[in-house]
């Protein structure tokens, strides 16, 4: 919710003209980081076409629609001119409320203004007041305390929460995402509790368990549509697939030594020394500056924590599986939660540090969540602690006294509990197993351990922190920690370890065998990478080359672009690691969901439809040429191909290829293949023309799906529907393959779809020559192809193309 900040109010101005007033109030917006200075001109421009005087001495200057790109963040500023300044013939303005609105968040303030317009006395009082709080109170709506009173709007529906899992962090984050797509207020009511439907923290505290009845109610101009969409999202399962993959216990194994029983959290067996990890200590400095400065500190820390997590998500989006990503996407939602943010900002008092107040608020949230009776929901307390620490780290780097131990030898790690971030940072080569006193199989820590392949036991009880034993067995399959194992126990554990290892090894051993179907059709299986180390890893995992280098990752998490030499060194190292295998380097694909702050690109209203990919390079020729020079120089060291991203128009490809040729001639190096990604529908429709000019196609199903289905690829509420196995997408792929075959051009798929075994078969059947997947999926995809026949794949593809829905296509794999 938009809040008028204390620092954005100026009392007692004595400006004498409208222009002066606009400059003064505009400056407040500039200083507050809401707008670029140029936006002030736009505010003046608006007054020329329409007067913004509302009545009762109140006016609302704001810029022209087309200059919204000059707004950095939505906000408002108030200038009080007690003597008034002429705004309109015979009308003097005393309260000048300047608005910088990127979206519609300012509506709430406007609603408050409407109240003032009908209350002449109050408006007069505000025009003279010397107390900023009067203005803040009048324009900031009263915040409702979460869960405090049961409020329900008239437009409502009662429904049952599907599944058994309840409203925990990931579904709550998906729900808030849908709710934020509407202007209406949203409330959820469950038993005697009520929550703001646009706040994850608020929803979590409802303690709503699976199968419970609750109501959603909405109020606002689009209340009906909002209610319909929210009910549908809940009924569709809010991103909770049927594949929750809860760790199932095998029957308890009969160990003879001393043991502690918990719940199996991640499968696998470990034998090794035990290392007990103490909890981080939090030491806070209570003393602070005035409330205003402390609030600023908290705002900045929140911004930094959000930026840092966002960066991590961008960087990992290829390497990390979806479950792991979803956990941290939910954390991002918690960090951005307006209810939580406002609660902390409001609680800050003079002379008390922001870090102290923030941790108090977080501790209270943790306490409330921990007391929920549903274990899945109470385990969210750990997520709250995680985001709490993330922010605290920026507020006061000394506050967290880490007790982290550098593990010297591979060990079984024992701790009270671990936050998802801590788990995610564990060094897999040193942690044989993870055992926690608290937690359960549904905690995010457990989900992470499963995704990282670390055997894990949760909820063994706090006595585990006192064991003193040199060696232990952590049996993640049955949830038992044997801390004083007898010889027989060790024999059993070793035997089980060997069996599991054998299966894994068989698949891994075959990773260098080509992917040839039973009826001798060959498909190349290559990898997607982002840096030189990953090239080596890909080859070790059995990749037959690299089908996509996402070069934009060389540009992230730094303050300036890598120069030509730095890029050349990176590409050279990659191609040298390839040992003669092909390497497709994609030119910079920035824009859309991949932001690079130091390039100072203008804000886009629709980033996915704006200046991104090849378009961006064609507008920044020097940046483009620098990269092309680095690629051509590196091509002397091994087989490299160039690929342009996001090509939608023939002119774009031609212009890109022309610049590449100029660069090549300047350097006097040999020509190399230039291909393009197929990720825009126009490229598919025009493939016949493109095929005459390109050397190869590579289909980017991640973007192609979002553009064909018109669904933002990062939209949580649409994650289920934005399915690359939708027949519309598959038909687009078929069109591309047919054209490529006709012109004798190679066609690959480098979107995430290629790593799905069912999709790999369908794509093979459609005629795709190359599947480019994340390195860890190479062995599995190769095995999938080797155990299928091309004829079967073709039949499967034919069936998939004529299905009505993505679900029907998926059902073909069952
Ligand atoms: C794609 O869009 O499928 C693709 C491979 O590119 P990226 O995910 O990097 O946009
Ligand atoms: Mg793409």
Written description of the protein model:
The protein is α/β, with parallel strands linked by helices and 814 residues long. It has 30 helices and 28 strands. The protein has an 8-stranded mixed β-sheet with strand order 10-19-18-12-15-16-17-11. Strands 21-22-23-24-25-26-27-28 form an 8-stranded parallel barrel, surrounded by 7 helices. Strands 1-4-5-3-2 form a 5-stranded mixed β-sheet, sandwiched between helices. It starts with 8 loop residues before the first strand and ends with a helix. Residues 143-148 and 241-249 have low confidence and may be disordered. Residues 645, 679, 700, 702-703 line the site of magnesium ion.
Outline the secondary-structure elements:
Layout: E1 9-10, H1 18-31, H2 39-49, E2 53-55, E3 58-59, E4 75-88, E5 91-100, H3 107-117, H4 120-128, H5 132-139, E6 155-160, H6 169-179, E7 185-190, E8 193-196, H7 200-204, E9 213-219, H8 223-235, E10 258-261, E11 263-266, E12 269-277, E13 281-282, H9 291-316, H10 322-336, H11 338-347, H12 354-370, H13 375-378, H14 381-395, E14 400-401, E15 411-415, H15 420-424, E16 431-436, H16 444-452, E17 456-458, E18 471-475, E19 480-484, H17 487-509, E20 515-516, E21 522-529, H18 532-540, E22 546-550, H19 564-578, E23 583-586, H20 613-619, H21 621-634, E24 640-644, H22 650-667, E25 674-678, H23 681-685, H24 687-693, E26 696-699, H25 701-709, H26 727-742, E27 746-749, H27 757-766, E28 770-774, H28 778-786, H29 790-801, H30 806-811
The structure holds phosphoenolpyruvate and magnesium ion.
The site of magnesium ion has 5 residues, from helix 25.
């Amino acid at each position: 919710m938009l809040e008028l900040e204390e620092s954005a109010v100026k009392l007692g101005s004595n400006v004498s003209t409208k222009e002066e007033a606009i400059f003064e109030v505009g400056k407040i917006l500039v200083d507050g980081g809401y707008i670029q200075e140029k936006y002030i001109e736009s505010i003046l421009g608006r007054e020329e076409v329409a007067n913004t005087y509302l009545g009762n001495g109140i006016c609302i200057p704001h810029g022209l629609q087309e200059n919204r790109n000059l707004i950095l963040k939505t906000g408002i500023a108030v200038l009080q001119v007690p003597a008034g300044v002429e705004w309109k013939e015979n009308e003097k303005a005393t309260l000048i409320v300047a608005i910088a609105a990127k979206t519609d968040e300012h509506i709430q303030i406007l609603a408050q203004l409407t109240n003032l317009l009908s209350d002449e006395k109050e408006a007069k009082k505000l025009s003279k007041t010397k107390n900023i709080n009067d203005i803040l109170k009048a324009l900031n709506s009263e915040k409702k305390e979460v869960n405090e009173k049961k409020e329900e709007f008239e437009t409502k529906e009662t429904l049952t929460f599907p599944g058994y899992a309840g409203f925990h962090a990931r579904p709550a984050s998906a729900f808030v995402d849908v709710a934020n797509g509407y202007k209406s207020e949203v409330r959820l009511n469950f038993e005697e509790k009520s929550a703001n439907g646009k706040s994850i923290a608020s929803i979590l505290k409802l303690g709503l368990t699976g199968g419970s009845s609750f109501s959603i109610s909405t109020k606002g101009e689009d209340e009906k549509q909002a209610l319909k969409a929210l009910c549908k999202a809940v009924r569709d399962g809010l991103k909770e697939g049927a594949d929750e993959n809860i760790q199932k216990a095998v029957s308890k194994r009969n160990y003879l030594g001393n043991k502690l029983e918990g719940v199996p959290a991640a499968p696998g067996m470990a034998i090794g020394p035990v290392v007990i990890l103490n909890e981080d200590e939090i030491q806070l400095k209570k003393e602070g500056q005035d409330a205003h400065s402390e609030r600023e500190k908290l705002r900045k820390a929140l911004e930094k924590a959000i930026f840092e997590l966002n960066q991590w998500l961008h960087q990992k989006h290829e390497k990390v599986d979806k479950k792991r990503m979803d956990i941290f996407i939910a954390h991002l939602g918690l960090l951005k939660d307006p209810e939580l943010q406002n609660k902390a900002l409001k609680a800050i008092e003079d002379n008390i540090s922001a870090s102290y107040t923030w941790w108090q608020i977080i501790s209270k949230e943790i306490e409330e969540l921990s007391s929920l009776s549903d274990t899945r929901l109470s385990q969210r307390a750990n997520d709250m602690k995680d985001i709490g620490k993330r922010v605290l780290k920026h507020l006061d780097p000394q506050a967290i006294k880490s007790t982290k131990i550098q593990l010297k030898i591979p060990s079984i790690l024992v701790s009270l509990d671990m936050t998802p971030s801590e788990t995610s940072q564990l060094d897999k080569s040193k942690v044989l197993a993870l055992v926690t006193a608290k937690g359960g199989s549904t905690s995010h820590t457990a989900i992470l351990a499963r995704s990282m392949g670390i055997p894990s036991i949760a909820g063994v009880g706090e006595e585990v922190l006192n064991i003193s034993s040199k060696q232990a067995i952590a049996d993640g399959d049955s949830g038992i920690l044997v801390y004083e194992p007898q010889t027989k126990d060790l024999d059993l554990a070793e035997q089980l370890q060997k069996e599991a290892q054998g299966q894994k090894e068989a698949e891994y051993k075959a990773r260098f065998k080509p992917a040839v179907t039973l009826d001798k059709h060959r498909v190349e299986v290559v990898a997607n990478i982002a840096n030189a180390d990953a090239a080596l890893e890909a080859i070790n995992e059995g990749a037959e080359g690299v089908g996509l280098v996402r070069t934009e990752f060389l540009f992230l998490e730094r303050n300036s672009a890598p120069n030509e030499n730095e890029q050349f060194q990176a590409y050279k190292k990659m191609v040298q690691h390839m040992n003669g295998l092909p390497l497709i380097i994609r030119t910079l694909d920035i824009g859309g969901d991949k932001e690079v702050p130091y390039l100072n690109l203008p804000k886009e209203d629709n980033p996915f439809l704006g200046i991104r990919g090849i378009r961006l390079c064609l507008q920044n020729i020097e940046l483009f040429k620098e990269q092309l020079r680095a690629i051509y120089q590196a091509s002397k060291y091994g087989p490299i191909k160039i690929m342009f991203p996001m090509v939608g128009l023939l002119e774009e490809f031609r212009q890109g290829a022309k610049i590449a040729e100029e660069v090549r001639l300047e350097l006097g190096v040999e020509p190399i293949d230039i291909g393009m990604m197929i990720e825009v529908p126009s490229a598919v429709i025009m493939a016949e023309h493109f095929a005459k000019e390109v050397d190869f196609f590579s289909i980017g199903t991640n973007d192609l799906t979002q553009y064909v289905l018109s669904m933002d690829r990062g939209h949580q509420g649409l994650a289920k529907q934005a399915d690359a196995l939708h027949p519309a997408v598959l038909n687009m792929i078929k069109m591309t393959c047919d054209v490529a075959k006709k012109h004798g051009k190679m066609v690959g798929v480098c979107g995430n779809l290629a790593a799905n075994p069912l999709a790999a078969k369908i794509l093979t059947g459609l005629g795709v020559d190359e599947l480019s997947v994340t390195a860890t999926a190479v062995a599995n995809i190769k095995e999938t192809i080797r155990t299928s026949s091309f004829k079967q794949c073709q039949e499967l593809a034919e069936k998939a193309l004529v299905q009505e829905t993505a679900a029907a296509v998926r059902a073909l794999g069952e």
